[in-house]
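PROTEIN DESIGN WORKSHEET
SECTION A - STRUCTURE
LENGTH: 220
TOKENS:
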């Protein structure tokens, strides 16, 4: 389950403040569709505290100028206010080697792969079916629209529609749908909602596809 303590759950990995605000709007819209906090948390594989925290974003009081931080390491008593856009620019300008970036990506992918594994193992299913779910979810993610920065686009209308379709299917035969058909789009939706970097998602799914594939082969 995704919590604030999840190792991959930080702004640098899931797109920063603008993405948080978009996630917040999706959750608010789901509430307006009469989904409870617990239902939203279950649909998006996260803790209820995360849902409440994101829903509260538009209602929090915060200075538009941002926090006050020391202007000099030599004189911590001298402070200045750093606007949000300046803080983001400073973080982006810090040089990082390709090796460092690759290591960060791999660590995040491995951590997220564990989240995928724990979620899939919470269902009663065979490892072969879990492997099929991962494959189908990957195909759905390949078709997902990207933002201008190459991350998955969080569109609140599309996200709400997808989540409601999974959580409250209109078909009268929904109970007869097989495991892979139900869980594949569900997995793709919550992956894209939290981890907007396709590189992390693809690597995490590759790791779990190999994991469940090996387990299924051993069982056979």
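SECTION B - SEQUENCE
RESIDUE ASSIGNMENT:
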């Amino acid at each position: 389950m995704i919590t604030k303590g999840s190792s991959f759950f930080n702004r640098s990995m899931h797109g920063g403040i603008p993405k948080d605000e978009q996630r917040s709007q999706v959750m608010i819209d789901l509430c307006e569709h009469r989904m409870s906090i617990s239902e939203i948390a279950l649909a998006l594989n996260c803790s209820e505290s995360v849902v409440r925290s994101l829903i509260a974003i538009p209602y929090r009081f915060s200075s538009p100028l941002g926090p006050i931080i020391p202007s000099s390491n030599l004189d911590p008593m001298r402070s200045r206010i750093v606007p949000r856009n300046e803080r983001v620019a400073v973080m982006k300008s810090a040089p990082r080697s390709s090796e460092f970036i690759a290591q960060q990506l791999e660590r995040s992918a491995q951590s997220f792969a564990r989240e995928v594994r724990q979620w899939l193992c919470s269902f009663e299913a065979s490892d072969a079916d879990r492997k099929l779910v991962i494959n189908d979810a990957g195909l759905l993610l390949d078709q997902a629209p990207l933002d201008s920065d190459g991350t998955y686009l969080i569109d609140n209308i599309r996200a709400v529609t997808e989540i409601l379709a999974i959580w409250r299917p209109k078909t009268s035969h929904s109970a007869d749908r097989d495991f892979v058909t139900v869980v594949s789009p569900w997995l793709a939706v919550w992956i894209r909602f939290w981890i907007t970097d396709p590189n992390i998602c693809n690597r995490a799914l590759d790791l779990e596809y190999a994991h469940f594939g090996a387990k299924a082969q051993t069982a056979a």
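SECTION C - NOTES
The two ends are 30 Å apart (CA to CA).
The CA atoms of residues 41 and 48 lie 5 Å apart.
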